[in-house]
Amino acid sequence: MNRDISKGERAEADLDRFIALRHDQRHLAQAAIRRLKQDVIARDGHVCGVCGDEVAVGNVSIDHVIPVSRGGSNEMDNLQVAHRSYNSRKGATYGDEVYGLRAS
Q1: Closest CA to 60 of 89, 84, 30
Q2: Each residue of 43-56: b (16+ CB within 10 Å) or e?
């Protein structure tokens, strides 16, 4: 049996194609995340879903109303604008558990 490509060479070529595909998928995923963030900000208009105050442009964070670890999704209806400091303190909890407020 005569093969032009050894198993090792074939595996290496497959790995190279896989890495290239993963890079393209990662790029597309990052673009989709940026677009989703822009859509949430456009919908909420820089108003924090936790406290209701305006969020400065450099302080905007996208918060999960129901944390993913508690069954929440990455869909628009589960995302809201929040102050970056609120979101980082809130972690995987509901807003009312940390701040006594109910996220909208």
Answers
A1: 84
A2: ebeebbbbeeeebe
pLDDT tens, position by position, 83-93: 988 777 655 55
* SS3 call for 91: coil
- The region that residue 102 occupies, defined by phi over 0 for left and psi between -120 and 50 for alpha, beta otherwise, is beta
In a domain, 104, yes or no: no
Long-range contacts of 90-96 (CB under 8 A, 24+ apart): 90/50, 90/63, 91/67, 92/67, 92/68, 93/67, 94/65, 94/66, 94/67, 94/70, 95/49, 95/50, 95/63, 95/65
CATH number at residue 11: 1.10.30
Q: What tokens appear for 71 in the block?
A: 């069954």
Q: Is this model's pTM higher than 0.70 or not?
A: no
Q: Which residue has the tokens 């609120």?
A: 86
How many distinct structural domains can be found in the chain?
Answer: 1
Tell whether the torsion through CA atoms of 56, 98, 63 and 40 is positive or negative: negative
